[in-house]
Amino acid sequence: MPVRVRSAALAAAAGAALLLPATPAAFAAADTETVTVDRTGRIASDGTVTLSGTYRCTAGTGPVFVSSSVSQSNPSVRYGIGGTRAVCDGQEHRWVNRGRAFANALKSGEAHVEASLMELRPTSGLLLPHFHAWQEQAVTLVAG
Predict the structure, then answer these.
(1) Would you tell me how many other CB atoms lie within 10 Å of the CB of residue 140?
(2) What's the domain count of the chain?
């Protein structure tokens, strides 16, 4: 039973993170905590998108992840592209996320990527999202 409770709490925290405003003012990031997005992403013939960049964060009290989303023809429709567990030791690290959009909705060409460095911080028995850094970037998706 504890596994289900923990899974439910994680799912609730992740869902709550999606409802938070996605603007730089919404993040309590220190100047030393950053996330970047490479200007080129890849899209495979099966629709799998690969995005990458760098991040830097300091120690957190809960698990920290680099998440990313991409939009293309309609900026109000974003597709989540994977998530990477972050190592918060104050050093710069690379991240790479892979995922597929619904029904191969993405293609080669210009796109817009948002990446965030988010911690699931324990608060009153719940894991709640705390944002360390956020970045948006125009990218080019290339076949490959």
Answers:
(1) 13
(2) 1
Q: Which tokens in the block code for residue 35?
A: 């996330």
Using DSSP's 3-state secondary structure scheme, residue 129 falls into strand
What gap in Å lies between CA 42 and CA 139, rounded to an integer? 10
Instruction: Dump pLDDT digits (tens) for 31-78.
Output: 689 999 999 999 999 999 999 999 999 977 889 999 999 999 898 999
- CB distance 139 to 51 below 8 Å: yes
The CATH code of the domain that includes 83 is 2.60.40.10
The DSSP 8-state label assigned to residue 1 in this structure reads -
Residue 103, pLDDT score: 80
DSSP-derived letter for residue 120 is: E
Q: List the structure tokens of 19.
A: 């409802």
**Of 29, 97, 44, which is closest to residue 68 (Cα–Cα)?**
97
φ and ψ at 15, to 5 degrees? -65, -40
- Domain span at residue 48 reads 2-143
The one-letter amino acid at 118:
M
pLDDT at residue 31, as a whole number: 67
- Tell how far CA 136 is from the center of its chain: 11
Segment 17-27 mean pLDDT: 43
Q: Which two tokens stand for residue 51?
A: 């995005």
